[in-house]
Amino acid sequence: MVKMKLTVSKEAAKYIENHLNHPNQKLLLSYDDGVGPFSKVGVCSLDTAFQIIAVSKELPTPDYDAKLESNIGEFEYKAYSKAYLGENLRLDLNEKYKTLSLSSEEETLDSSIVLLDLTGNTEEFV
């Protein structure tokens, strides 16, 4: 079995670091499907949508029951969302629009990844 991995480009890594950089956080690669406390609505179209969410390391995140290794650290994700991902994922920054894009070897999965910093909002999700 091939282990999934995520390669984050230098530009995307710097962008994430500039927006989500707390010493006591963990990163979630969240499939926005309306399941869990961080996904309020979900997507009602044929598109797939992902978010990168920073939360406190102490915050329980039982919906995020799988781990994805990357060159900038570990991401947690919903195991069932693996069906929408590929084995070799890449996260890039579109310099012109300052948006993140998630792709696999086969296709672009989401060309406009949302970044959310919820590190200080632990009470709302417990």
TrEMBL record:
Give the Gene3D superfamilies listed for this entry.
HesB-like domain
- Per the record, the domain of life is Bacteria
Residue ranges annotated for the Core domain, each copy included: 4-115
**By its UniProt entry, which InterPro entries does this protein fall under?**
ATAP_core_dom (IPR000361), HesB-like_dom_sf (IPR035903)
Protein name according to UniProt? Core domain-containing protein
